[in-house]
Amino acid sequence: MSAPITLPPTPNGAADADRPAPPASVLTRPVGGAVSGGAAPGGAAGHGEGVDRRRAKRLVTPRRALAALAVLAVSALAAWALWGRPEGQTLRVDADRLTVAAVEDGPFQEYVAVTGTAQPLRTVLLDAVEGGQVVRRHVEEGDTVAAGQVLFTLRNDDLALEVMGSESQLEEQAAALRQNRLQMDQSALDLEQQLAQLDYDITRLERDEARVSGLVDRDAAPRKDLLAIQDELAYTRRRRALTARGAEQQEAQHRVQTRDMAASVGRLRENLALVRRSSTNLTVRAPVAGQVSGLQAEIGELKNRGDRLGQVDVLDASKVRALIDEHYLPRVAPGQRATATVGGAEYTLAVRAVYPEVTDGRFEAELVFAGPAPPDLRRGQSVRLRLELGDPERARLLERGGFYGDTGGQWVFVLSPDGREAVRRPVELGRQTPRHFEVLGGLERGDRVVVSSYAAFGDADRLVVE
User: Fold this and answer.
1) Total of domains in the chain
2) Does a structural domain hold residue 38?
3) Is 368 in the same domain as 435?
4) Which residue among 56, 124, 176, 420 has its CA within the 20 to 30 Å range from the CA of 428?
5) Taking the model in full, what pTM does it have?
6) Residue 316 belongs to domain spanning
7) Is residue 83 part of a domain?
8) Judging by DSSP bridges, how do beta strands 462-465 and 90-93 pair with one another?
9) Residue 320 belongs to domain with CATH number
Protein backbone atom coordinates (compact mmCIF):
# COMPACT_ATOMS: atom_id res chain seq x y z
CA MET A 1 0.00 0.00 0.00
CA SER A 2 1.52 3.41 -1.07
CA ALA A 3 1.95 6.31 1.29
CA PRO A 4 -0.58 9.21 1.32
CA ILE A 5 0.02 12.00 -1.14
CA THR A 6 0.85 15.40 0.28
CA LEU A 7 -0.42 18.36 -1.81
CA PRO A 8 1.54 21.61 -2.02
CA PRO A 9 -0.03 24.76 -0.67
CA THR A 10 -2.33 26.65 -3.02
CA PRO A 11 -1.97 30.33 -3.90
CA ASN A 12 -4.93 31.21 -1.68
CA GLY A 13 -3.62 29.11 1.15
CA ALA A 14 -5.55 30.94 3.77
CA ALA A 15 -8.81 29.77 2.37
CA ASP A 16 -7.63 26.29 1.66
CA ALA A 17 -6.10 25.91 5.05
CA ASP A 18 -9.59 25.95 6.56
CA ARG A 19 -10.92 23.31 4.16
CA PRO A 20 -10.67 19.73 5.44
CA ALA A 21 -8.52 17.38 3.51
CA PRO A 22 -10.43 14.94 1.32
CA PRO A 23 -9.72 11.25 1.53
CA ALA A 24 -6.88 9.86 -0.47
CA SER A 25 -9.22 8.09 -2.86
CA VAL A 26 -11.02 11.29 -3.87
CA LEU A 27 -9.15 12.99 -6.72
CA THR A 28 -10.09 15.57 -9.25
CA ARG A 29 -9.07 15.45 -12.84
CA PRO A 30 -7.79 18.70 -14.43
CA VAL A 31 -8.77 19.46 -17.95
CA GLY A 32 -6.64 17.39 -20.26
CA GLY A 33 -4.97 15.50 -17.38
CA ALA A 34 -5.33 12.04 -15.95
CA VAL A 35 -6.17 10.89 -12.51
CA SER A 36 -3.15 9.53 -10.72
CA GLY A 37 -2.62 8.25 -7.22
CA GLY A 38 1.19 8.46 -7.43
CA ALA A 39 3.75 11.00 -8.57
CA ALA A 40 3.05 13.63 -11.15
CA PRO A 41 4.14 12.98 -14.73
CA GLY A 42 7.70 13.48 -15.50
CA GLY A 43 8.78 12.48 -12.00
CA ALA A 44 7.91 15.85 -10.40
CA ALA A 45 6.03 15.18 -7.20
CA GLY A 46 3.33 17.82 -6.41
CA HIS A 47 4.69 20.66 -8.62
CA GLY A 48 3.42 22.32 -11.77
CA GLU A 49 0.07 22.56 -13.51
CA GLY A 50 -1.98 19.46 -14.15
CA VAL A 51 -1.18 18.05 -10.80
CA ASP A 52 -4.30 16.18 -9.27
CA ARG A 53 -5.77 17.67 -6.08
CA ARG A 54 -8.19 16.39 -3.44
CA ARG A 55 -11.65 18.20 -3.14
CA ALA A 56 -13.56 18.33 0.13
CA LYS A 57 -16.98 16.41 0.14
CA ARG A 58 -20.17 18.32 1.21
CA LEU A 59 -22.25 16.52 3.93
CA VAL A 60 -25.60 18.33 3.29
CA THR A 61 -26.99 18.23 -0.26
CA PRO A 62 -30.48 19.19 -1.62
CA ARG A 63 -31.25 15.55 -2.38
CA ARG A 64 -30.36 14.48 1.15
CA ALA A 65 -32.47 17.28 2.59
CA LEU A 66 -35.54 16.23 0.55
CA ALA A 67 -35.07 12.60 1.59
CA ALA A 68 -34.90 13.61 5.25
CA LEU A 69 -38.10 15.65 4.96
CA ALA A 70 -39.87 12.68 3.34
CA VAL A 71 -38.78 10.38 6.16
CA LEU A 72 -40.05 12.87 8.73
CA ALA A 73 -43.45 13.13 6.96
CA VAL A 74 -43.87 9.36 6.80
CA SER A 75 -42.92 9.06 10.46
CA ALA A 76 -45.47 11.72 11.38
CA LEU A 77 -48.25 9.92 9.44
CA ALA A 78 -47.33 6.62 11.06
CA ALA A 79 -47.39 8.19 14.51
CA TRP A 80 -50.85 9.73 13.74
CA ALA A 81 -52.19 6.37 12.63
CA LEU A 82 -50.69 4.57 15.63
CA TRP A 83 -51.47 6.94 18.50
CA GLY A 84 -54.35 8.93 17.04
CA ARG A 85 -54.77 12.49 16.12
CA PRO A 86 -53.65 15.21 18.47
CA GLU A 87 -56.32 16.09 20.95
CA GLY A 88 -57.90 19.39 21.29
CA GLN A 89 -59.27 20.04 17.77
CA THR A 90 -62.22 22.31 18.52
CA LEU A 91 -64.87 23.79 16.26
CA ARG A 92 -67.37 26.49 17.14
CA VAL A 93 -70.87 25.79 15.81
CA ASP A 94 -74.22 27.55 15.95
CA ALA A 95 -76.79 25.79 18.14
CA ASP A 96 -79.47 26.35 15.51
CA ARG A 97 -77.53 24.11 13.13
CA LEU A 98 -77.64 21.12 15.48
CA THR A 99 -80.39 18.55 15.95
CA VAL A 100 -80.19 16.96 19.37
CA ALA A 101 -81.97 13.82 20.60
CA ALA A 102 -81.92 12.24 24.04
CA VAL A 103 -81.10 8.57 24.58
CA GLU A 104 -84.07 6.82 26.17
CA ASP A 105 -85.24 3.36 27.15
CA GLY A 106 -88.41 2.11 25.53
CA PRO A 107 -90.05 -0.56 23.40
CA PHE A 108 -88.02 -1.38 20.31
CA GLN A 109 -90.32 -2.48 17.51
CA GLU A 110 -88.73 -3.60 14.29
CA TYR A 111 -90.84 -2.75 11.28
CA VAL A 112 -90.45 -2.35 7.56
CA ALA A 113 -91.87 0.51 5.54
CA VAL A 114 -93.83 -0.71 2.51
CA THR A 115 -96.26 0.81 0.05
CA GLY A 116 -99.65 -0.80 -0.55
CA THR A 117 -102.57 -0.21 -2.87
CA ALA A 118 -106.09 0.30 -1.55
CA GLN A 119 -108.76 -2.06 -2.87
CA PRO A 120 -112.36 -2.79 -1.88
CA LEU A 121 -112.63 -5.52 0.71
CA ARG A 122 -115.32 -7.23 -1.37
CA THR A 123 -115.77 -7.14 -5.13
CA VAL A 124 -118.70 -8.80 -6.93
CA LEU A 125 -117.99 -9.79 -10.53
CA LEU A 126 -120.59 -9.32 -13.25
CA ASP A 127 -120.60 -12.18 -15.77
CA ALA A 128 -123.08 -12.89 -18.53
CA VAL A 129 -125.34 -15.69 -17.24
CA GLU A 130 -126.87 -15.95 -20.70
CA GLY A 131 -125.20 -14.98 -23.92
CA GLY A 132 -126.62 -12.27 -26.10
CA GLN A 133 -126.12 -8.93 -27.77
CA VAL A 134 -125.72 -5.81 -25.64
CA VAL A 135 -128.56 -3.52 -26.66
CA ARG A 136 -128.31 -1.01 -23.82
CA ARG A 137 -125.84 0.06 -21.14
CA HIS A 138 -127.52 1.86 -18.28
CA VAL A 139 -124.41 2.89 -16.26
CA GLU A 140 -120.93 4.27 -16.81
CA GLU A 141 -117.58 3.59 -15.18
CA GLY A 142 -117.44 4.82 -11.59
CA ASP A 143 -121.22 5.19 -11.10
CA THR A 144 -122.62 4.31 -7.69
CA VAL A 145 -125.52 1.88 -7.96
CA ALA A 146 -128.08 0.32 -5.62
CA ALA A 147 -128.79 -3.38 -5.27
CA GLY A 148 -131.12 -4.55 -8.05
CA GLN A 149 -130.48 -1.57 -10.32
CA VAL A 150 -130.43 -2.43 -14.04
CA LEU A 151 -126.92 -2.25 -15.51
CA PHE A 152 -127.15 -3.89 -18.98
CA THR A 153 -129.84 -5.18 -21.31
CA LEU A 154 -129.04 -8.05 -23.70
CA ARG A 155 -131.06 -9.72 -26.45
CA ASN A 156 -131.06 -13.42 -27.38
CA ASP A 157 -133.54 -14.52 -30.09
CA ASP A 158 -132.72 -18.22 -29.65
CA LEU A 159 -133.62 -17.99 -25.99
CA ALA A 160 -136.90 -16.29 -26.87
CA LEU A 161 -137.77 -19.13 -29.26
CA GLU A 162 -136.89 -21.64 -26.54
CA VAL A 163 -139.30 -19.93 -24.18
CA MET A 164 -142.05 -20.11 -26.78
CA GLY A 165 -141.35 -23.80 -27.42
CA SER A 166 -141.48 -24.61 -23.71
CA GLU A 167 -144.76 -22.79 -23.36
CA SER A 168 -146.22 -24.74 -26.29
CA GLN A 169 -145.10 -28.09 -24.83
CA LEU A 170 -146.59 -27.17 -21.50
CA GLU A 171 -149.93 -26.32 -23.09
CA GLU A 172 -150.00 -29.60 -25.03
CA GLN A 173 -149.19 -31.67 -21.98
CA ALA A 174 -151.72 -29.83 -19.86
CA ALA A 175 -154.38 -30.43 -22.52
CA ALA A 176 -153.52 -34.15 -22.65
CA LEU A 177 -153.79 -34.30 -18.87
CA ARG A 178 -157.23 -32.70 -18.95
CA GLN A 179 -158.38 -35.10 -21.69
CA ASN A 180 -157.12 -38.08 -19.76
CA ARG A 181 -158.89 -36.96 -16.65
CA LEU A 182 -162.10 -36.52 -18.65
CA GLN A 183 -161.78 -40.02 -20.04
CA MET A 184 -161.11 -41.46 -16.63
CA ASP A 185 -164.12 -39.68 -15.20
CA GLN A 186 -166.32 -41.01 -18.04
CA SER A 187 -165.01 -44.55 -17.57
CA ALA A 188 -165.61 -44.35 -13.82
CA LEU A 189 -169.16 -43.14 -14.51
CA ASP A 190 -169.80 -46.08 -16.84
CA LEU A 191 -168.59 -48.52 -14.24
CA GLU A 192 -170.83 -46.94 -11.62
CA GLN A 193 -173.79 -47.32 -14.00
CA GLN A 194 -172.93 -50.98 -14.58
CA LEU A 195 -172.70 -51.63 -10.87
CA ALA A 196 -176.01 -49.85 -10.31
CA GLN A 197 -177.66 -52.01 -12.97
CA LEU A 198 -176.21 -55.17 -11.47
CA ASP A 199 -177.39 -54.15 -8.02
CA TYR A 200 -180.87 -53.62 -9.47
CA ASP A 201 -180.80 -57.05 -11.17
CA ILE A 202 -179.69 -58.74 -7.97
CA THR A 203 -182.48 -57.07 -6.01
CA ARG A 204 -185.06 -58.08 -8.64
CA LEU A 205 -183.79 -61.67 -8.76
CA GLU A 206 -183.80 -61.96 -4.98
CA ARG A 207 -187.49 -60.90 -4.96
CA ASP A 208 -188.31 -63.36 -7.73
CA GLU A 209 -186.49 -66.08 -5.83
CA ALA A 210 -188.55 -65.45 -2.70
CA ARG A 211 -191.83 -65.30 -4.63
CA VAL A 212 -191.14 -68.45 -6.70
CA SER A 213 -189.83 -70.30 -3.65
CA GLY A 214 -193.21 -69.75 -1.93
CA LEU A 215 -195.06 -71.01 -4.96
CA VAL A 216 -192.85 -74.08 -5.17
CA ASP A 217 -193.50 -74.79 -1.54
CA ARG A 218 -197.26 -74.72 -2.28
CA ASP A 219 -196.71 -76.76 -5.45
CA ALA A 220 -198.04 -73.83 -7.40
CA ALA A 221 -194.95 -73.55 -9.58
CA PRO A 222 -192.41 -75.98 -10.87
CA ARG A 223 -188.98 -76.21 -9.10
CA LYS A 224 -187.12 -75.57 -12.35
CA ASP A 225 -188.36 -72.01 -12.37
CA LEU A 226 -186.84 -71.50 -8.90
CA LEU A 227 -183.58 -73.08 -9.95
CA ALA A 228 -183.40 -70.85 -13.06
CA ILE A 229 -183.93 -67.78 -10.92
CA GLN A 230 -181.32 -68.91 -8.42
CA ASP A 231 -178.80 -69.59 -11.19
CA GLU A 232 -179.34 -66.14 -12.71
CA LEU A 233 -179.06 -64.54 -9.27
CA ALA A 234 -175.73 -66.25 -8.62
CA TYR A 235 -174.43 -65.21 -12.04
CA THR A 236 -175.48 -61.60 -11.50
CA ARG A 237 -173.86 -61.51 -8.12
CA ARG A 238 -170.59 -62.80 -9.62
CA ARG A 239 -170.78 -60.25 -12.44
CA ARG A 240 -171.27 -57.55 -9.84
CA ALA A 241 -168.14 -58.68 -7.90
CA LEU A 242 -166.04 -58.83 -11.06
CA THR A 243 -167.29 -55.44 -12.20
CA ALA A 244 -166.50 -53.90 -8.82
CA ARG A 245 -163.00 -55.41 -8.86
CA GLY A 246 -162.44 -54.09 -12.39
CA ALA A 247 -163.62 -50.65 -11.30
CA GLU A 248 -161.13 -50.64 -8.45
CA GLN A 249 -158.26 -51.66 -10.74
CA GLN A 250 -159.22 -49.11 -13.34
CA GLU A 251 -159.44 -46.41 -10.71
CA ALA A 252 -155.97 -47.31 -9.40
CA GLN A 253 -154.59 -47.26 -12.94
CA HIS A 254 -156.21 -43.93 -13.63
CA ARG A 255 -154.68 -42.52 -10.45
CA VAL A 256 -151.21 -43.63 -11.58
CA GLN A 257 -151.71 -42.16 -15.03
CA THR A 258 -153.00 -38.93 -13.59
CA ARG A 259 -150.04 -38.70 -11.21
CA ASP A 260 -147.54 -39.33 -14.02
CA MET A 261 -149.14 -36.81 -16.32
CA ALA A 262 -149.33 -34.28 -13.52
CA ALA A 263 -145.64 -34.81 -12.82
CA SER A 264 -144.88 -34.35 -16.50
CA VAL A 265 -146.85 -31.15 -16.52
CA GLY A 266 -144.99 -30.03 -13.40
CA ARG A 267 -141.63 -30.68 -15.04
CA LEU A 268 -142.72 -28.73 -18.07
CA ARG A 269 -143.74 -25.87 -15.83
CA GLU A 270 -140.34 -25.94 -14.08
CA ASN A 271 -138.59 -26.02 -17.42
CA LEU A 272 -140.65 -23.10 -18.60
CA ALA A 273 -139.85 -21.19 -15.40
CA LEU A 274 -136.14 -21.91 -15.88
CA VAL A 275 -136.22 -20.74 -19.48
CA ARG A 276 -138.13 -17.64 -18.48
CA ARG A 277 -135.63 -16.99 -15.67
CA SER A 278 -132.85 -17.38 -18.21
CA SER A 279 -134.54 -14.79 -20.35
CA THR A 280 -134.72 -12.44 -17.37
CA ASN A 281 -130.93 -12.88 -16.99
CA LEU A 282 -130.64 -10.94 -20.22
CA THR A 283 -131.36 -7.94 -17.99
CA VAL A 284 -128.22 -7.65 -15.84
CA ARG A 285 -128.83 -6.07 -12.42
CA ALA A 286 -126.46 -5.00 -9.65
CA PRO A 287 -126.23 -7.85 -7.10
CA VAL A 288 -125.12 -5.46 -4.33
CA ALA A 289 -124.88 -1.74 -3.73
CA GLY A 290 -121.51 -0.26 -4.62
CA GLN A 291 -119.45 1.36 -7.33
CA VAL A 292 -119.30 0.06 -10.90
CA SER A 293 -115.81 -0.50 -12.29
CA GLY A 294 -114.05 -2.48 -14.98
CA LEU A 295 -116.89 -2.26 -17.53
CA GLN A 296 -116.25 -4.51 -20.53
CA ALA A 297 -119.52 -4.29 -22.48
CA GLU A 298 -120.26 -1.97 -25.37
CA ILE A 299 -123.55 -1.53 -27.17
CA GLY A 300 -123.83 -4.00 -30.05
CA GLU A 301 -121.17 -6.32 -28.63
CA LEU A 302 -121.95 -10.05 -28.58
CA LYS A 303 -121.33 -11.69 -25.22
CA ASN A 304 -121.15 -15.44 -24.67
CA ARG A 305 -122.31 -17.12 -21.51
CA GLY A 306 -119.71 -16.52 -18.79
CA ASP A 307 -118.08 -13.47 -20.41
CA ARG A 308 -117.06 -10.67 -18.04
CA LEU A 309 -119.22 -7.54 -18.13
CA GLY A 310 -117.71 -5.61 -15.22
CA GLN A 311 -117.70 -5.60 -11.45
CA VAL A 312 -119.27 -3.84 -8.47
CA ASP A 313 -116.96 -2.75 -5.63
CA VAL A 314 -118.55 -2.72 -2.19
CA LEU A 315 -117.55 0.59 -0.63
CA ASP A 316 -118.33 -0.12 3.01
CA ALA A 317 -114.89 -1.69 3.68
CA SER A 318 -111.41 -1.63 2.14
CA LYS A 319 -108.23 -3.69 2.15
CA VAL A 320 -104.61 -3.01 1.19
CA ARG A 321 -102.42 -5.24 -0.96
CA ALA A 322 -98.70 -4.59 -0.43
CA LEU A 323 -95.55 -5.81 -2.16
CA ILE A 324 -92.79 -6.70 0.33
CA ASP A 325 -89.14 -7.56 -0.24
CA GLU A 326 -88.56 -11.32 -0.26
CA HIS A 327 -85.98 -10.88 2.54
CA TYR A 328 -88.88 -10.47 5.00
CA LEU A 329 -90.94 -13.46 3.77
CA PRO A 330 -90.08 -15.72 6.76
CA ARG A 331 -91.01 -12.91 9.18
CA VAL A 332 -94.46 -12.00 7.82
CA ALA A 333 -97.48 -14.04 8.87
CA PRO A 334 -101.26 -13.55 9.19
CA GLY A 335 -102.21 -11.54 12.25
CA GLN A 336 -99.21 -9.19 12.27
CA ARG A 337 -100.02 -5.53 12.81
CA ALA A 338 -99.28 -2.54 10.64
CA THR A 339 -100.04 1.16 10.89
CA ALA A 340 -100.81 3.69 8.17
CA THR A 341 -101.37 7.43 8.17
CA VAL A 342 -104.12 8.54 5.80
CA GLY A 343 -105.50 12.06 5.74
CA GLY A 344 -103.57 13.00 8.87
CA ALA A 345 -105.10 10.18 10.95
CA GLU A 346 -103.40 6.92 11.96
CA TYR A 347 -105.11 3.60 11.27
CA THR A 348 -104.29 0.07 12.39
CA LEU A 349 -104.29 -2.89 10.00
CA ALA A 350 -103.68 -6.62 10.31
CA VAL A 351 -102.21 -9.09 7.82
CA ARG A 352 -105.05 -11.28 6.55
CA ALA A 353 -103.21 -13.36 3.96
CA VAL A 354 -99.64 -13.88 2.72
CA TYR A 355 -99.03 -15.01 -0.85
CA PRO A 356 -95.56 -16.68 -0.85
CA GLU A 357 -95.07 -16.57 -4.61
CA VAL A 358 -92.03 -14.32 -5.25
CA THR A 359 -92.03 -12.15 -8.36
CA ASP A 360 -89.19 -9.74 -9.16
CA GLY A 361 -87.82 -10.21 -5.65
CA ARG A 362 -91.07 -9.35 -3.86
CA PHE A 363 -94.06 -11.20 -2.47
CA GLU A 364 -97.58 -9.96 -1.81
CA ALA A 365 -99.55 -9.65 1.42
CA GLU A 366 -103.15 -8.61 2.02
CA LEU A 367 -104.02 -6.42 5.00
CA VAL A 368 -107.39 -5.32 6.39
CA PHE A 369 -108.26 -2.44 8.69
CA ALA A 370 -108.72 -3.46 12.31
CA GLY A 371 -111.34 -0.73 12.70
CA PRO A 372 -113.15 1.67 10.36
CA ALA A 373 -111.38 2.35 7.08
CA PRO A 374 -110.46 5.90 6.05
CA PRO A 375 -113.61 7.52 4.62
CA ASP A 376 -111.85 9.08 1.64
CA LEU A 377 -109.84 6.02 0.62
CA ARG A 378 -110.27 5.28 -3.09
CA ARG A 379 -109.53 2.20 -5.16
CA GLY A 380 -105.91 2.26 -6.39
CA GLN A 381 -104.76 4.87 -3.86
CA SER A 382 -101.24 4.35 -2.48
CA VAL A 383 -100.95 3.75 1.26
CA ARG A 384 -97.68 3.95 3.19
CA LEU A 385 -97.51 1.16 5.78
CA ARG A 386 -95.25 0.39 8.74
CA LEU A 387 -95.40 -3.38 9.01
CA GLU A 388 -94.29 -4.63 12.43
CA LEU A 389 -91.83 -7.55 12.49
CA GLY A 390 -92.17 -9.59 15.65
CA ASP A 391 -93.09 -8.45 19.15
CA PRO A 392 -91.70 -5.24 20.73
CA GLU A 393 -88.68 -5.51 23.08
CA ARG A 394 -87.26 -3.20 25.74
CA ALA A 395 -84.09 -1.52 24.48
CA ARG A 396 -82.02 1.65 24.68
CA LEU A 397 -82.98 3.88 21.76
CA LEU A 398 -81.36 6.70 19.82
CA GLU A 399 -83.23 8.67 17.22
CA ARG A 400 -82.07 8.27 13.63
CA GLY A 401 -80.32 11.17 11.92
CA GLY A 402 -77.82 12.25 9.33
CA PHE A 403 -74.85 11.46 11.59
CA TYR A 404 -75.04 7.78 10.67
CA GLY A 405 -74.06 8.46 7.07
CA ASP A 406 -70.95 10.34 8.25
CA THR A 407 -69.74 8.02 11.02
CA GLY A 408 -71.25 4.65 10.09
CA GLY A 409 -72.56 4.48 13.65
CA GLN A 410 -69.02 4.20 15.11
CA TRP A 411 -69.03 7.43 17.13
CA VAL A 412 -71.23 10.42 18.00
CA PHE A 413 -71.00 13.87 19.57
CA VAL A 414 -72.48 13.89 23.06
CA LEU A 415 -73.50 17.21 24.67
CA SER A 416 -72.26 18.18 28.09
CA PRO A 417 -74.87 18.65 30.84
CA ASP A 418 -74.84 22.43 30.35
CA GLY A 419 -75.17 22.03 26.57
CA ARG A 420 -72.22 24.33 25.84
CA GLU A 421 -70.03 21.72 24.20
CA ALA A 422 -70.22 18.33 22.54
CA VAL A 423 -67.44 15.74 22.78
CA ARG A 424 -66.78 12.89 20.41
CA ARG A 425 -67.54 9.45 21.92
CA PRO A 426 -67.34 5.94 20.41
CA VAL A 427 -70.61 3.99 20.44
CA GLU A 428 -71.97 0.63 19.35
CA LEU A 429 -75.31 0.54 17.52
CA GLY A 430 -77.33 -2.56 16.71
CA ARG A 431 -80.65 -3.05 14.97
CA GLN A 432 -82.51 -0.14 13.49
CA THR A 433 -85.93 0.99 12.42
CA PRO A 434 -86.87 3.94 10.21
CA ARG A 435 -87.05 6.02 13.43
CA HIS A 436 -84.55 4.62 15.95
CA PHE A 437 -81.24 2.82 16.45
CA GLU A 438 -80.76 0.21 19.12
CA VAL A 439 -77.88 1.31 21.41
CA LEU A 440 -75.66 -1.60 22.48
CA GLY A 441 -72.91 0.40 24.17
CA GLY A 442 -71.24 3.79 24.69
CA LEU A 443 -74.34 5.77 25.69
CA GLU A 444 -76.40 6.03 28.84
CA ARG A 445 -80.05 6.83 29.34
CA GLY A 446 -80.52 10.60 29.26
CA ASP A 447 -77.42 11.40 27.16
CA ARG A 448 -78.09 14.09 24.60
CA VAL A 449 -76.60 13.29 21.22
CA VAL A 450 -76.14 15.44 18.14
CA VAL A 451 -77.99 13.42 15.48
CA SER A 452 -77.79 15.88 12.57
CA SER A 453 -75.14 15.56 9.86
CA TYR A 454 -71.45 15.84 10.83
CA ALA A 455 -70.27 16.68 7.33
CA ALA A 456 -69.44 20.30 8.26
CA PHE A 457 -67.46 19.38 11.37
CA GLY A 458 -64.42 17.97 9.60
CA ASP A 459 -61.95 16.34 12.02
CA ALA A 460 -63.10 18.19 15.11
CA ASP A 461 -63.10 16.27 18.41
CA ARG A 462 -65.00 18.88 20.37
CA LEU A 463 -67.76 21.25 19.40
CA VAL A 464 -68.30 24.53 21.21
CA VAL A 465 -72.00 25.33 20.96
CA GLU A 466 -72.78 29.05 20.70
Assistant:
1) 4
2) yes
3) no
4) 420
5) 0.46
6) 111-119+311-388
7) no
8) parallel
9) 2.40.30.170
Chain CA centroid to CA 346, Å? 21
Asked whether residue 374 falls in the same domain as residue 409, the answer is no
Same domain assignment for residues 194 and 254: yes
Is position 130 within any domain? no
- Do 170 and 244 share a domain, yes or no? yes
Query: 81 lies in a domain?
Result: no
Q: Residues 169, 259: one domain? A: yes
Q: What is the CATH number of the domain that holds 438?
A: 2.40.420.20
